[in-house]
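Why this split exists: single-chain examples teach little about how molecules sit against one another. For that reason, every record in the complexes split bundles all components of an assembly together and asks for one structure covering all of them. Below is a record exactly as it appears in the raw files.
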Amino acid sequence: MGSFADQLLVLVMLINFVMLGSSRMALCIRAVAVQGVVLGLLPGLVHPFSWHLAGITCGIILAKGIVIPYLINDAVRKAQIRREIEPFIGYVPTLILGAIFTTLAFVFAEKLPLAPEHRELLFVPASIATLMSGFLILTTRKKAISQVIGYLVLENGIFIFGLLLTEAMPVMVEAGALLDLLVGIFVMGIVINHISREFSSIDTSRLRALKEE
Amino acid sequence: MLYLFVLLPLLGAFVAWIVPDNRYRPLVLPAVAIPHLLMAFYLAGNAPPPSPGGWIWLDPLGKIVLLCISMLFTVCAVYSVGYLAYRQERSNRVLCIGLLTCLSAMTLATMCQHLGLLWVAVETTTVTMAPLIYFNRNARSIEATWKYLLICSVGIALALLGLLFLAYSTHVAHLEATLLLSSLKASAKDLNQGWLHAAFIFLLVGYGSKMGLAPLHTWKPDAYGEAPGLVGALLAGGLVNCAFLAILRVYQLCLSSGKEIVFFQNALISLGLISMAFAAVFMAKQADFKRMLAYSSVEHVGILAIGLGLGKGALFGALFHLMNNGLTKGVLFLSSGNIHRSYGSKTTDLVRGALTRLPWSGGLFLAGFIAITGSPPFSPFISEYTIVSSAFIEGRYLVGGLFLVFLSIVFIGMALTVLPLVMGTPPADLEKSEYRDRLLTVGPPFVMMLIILFLGVWPPDALLQLLREGAALLEARP
């Protein structure tokens, strides 16, 4: 089972690159949805069956695969945007940076004091690589929607690490975390809508009235 | 009893949602806040035993934060009735619902003994505050909201990663993985040190960005500057204290591990000093008085972190300061909200001579400034003095010295903004505004100022006892 989980994690990391290299908003949203569904399948592969697990799987696929992408799509439609234009750093440099971070994640994960049963698996490097990709998207893109996608990818990275300890986190906390993420994205969607109305664009680099002189 | 305590504000939020009239809706806020305050006082005296699973329990640290939040919220709630009467042009439904939901989440945060549940509560406060910062519905406030939402969400996400590291450290140590504070503390000595350190750093950065410790404070001046005064008061006195309580919980756990406590303490002290330094630099020549208050908040979270990091006698000071800072910020934000309303501006080129135009609000703003900079006889003086003196008693001369230097720079910087604002002569060409000092907008901050004075001159024994009990929980035992 472990090897199949590893293949899925490789898929997750490849999806990171799709998002890092693409300028089309619709593609990015679809990619983040696919990533969410893949992550939802993972807990079932690494832990023995229980109702708790089934609940998590359904919850994650529903939230990350359907509801959140729907909310973002809704915001995109209302704000009428198709693509990210002129990010702070170009697509090729971001891809290269992403590749460097992914390599470093593997090197770094080797050095961590992991429990012996996790040493052979790809969970930790995939988690760090996804986290870093999320940061990269968050910091290099100008559009508010892309920043939200970056935030989601960052959360996904944290989620992969959390998979190592699904038994430890009681259902209530997981449900709460998921709900907060959902509400957070919802609020961000509303804010994006207001940004686009206020500035007739959702380019966050125009948000610069507030700074120190 | 405790569950009822969390549900009461939620019920209030529901009522606020269904009340159709914009004029009567704000009355829900005091209607919830006053019973909440009474319950908080009652519970501080007779706290029920921990819940069966051990998740919910109001310990001394929780009581201190709860009392502070409840007092501040009650004052803000009474004030809001007067304030929102001037803002009838906007619907206050979202504001009322948001404030009450946030109160519920803050109450929950004070009694969580489970770090995961605590995280959920703190994250909920973050999300519910976002629409409130955007109350004014203009380009500047949307920018502030976006920054707040993005930076705090990322910070809180990092705190979640820290929590996972913490759970993983139990897994590596072959213990049952849990996030319950009591069982974590019991097994803290066996936790894997590497993961525990990593967890502490991530949690400190995560909750620190929520609390506004420099260099993670960049959202703070914008959010505090653009939010209405009463939201600013709750951000600076309520949310900051919740995030600090989360750090206190993690710190309690790190203390129980009994190893390399100096590492944790130094991390806190250095972040605290950096915050004070940032505040001192940006406070000077700050033309916008609400942004100035934000930097003052950065300074005071720095003081809290330093007090916690110094340990021993400073712990008492830090806990007392948590309360004093929350209440004094309440006075400052509420009175600055009044001044802003009256002048229609928040920069010092236009706002001068507040004492002539608005004797009460101007006077309260001045008194709040004197209190927050740590002058006797107000209570922040006692807490700041305790922290400084214990720094010198412990032989941390560098920390104590820098602390004093930053305090005096902040004092001068703040005085340069506040004194002309309050004392000067009002500009002649000022437009008339419909705002007047009334009982409902001036009374609440005035009462709070009296409490601060009272705590400074004659602190009640019960409170001192509570603070000592709280400090004992944070004591590093070799």
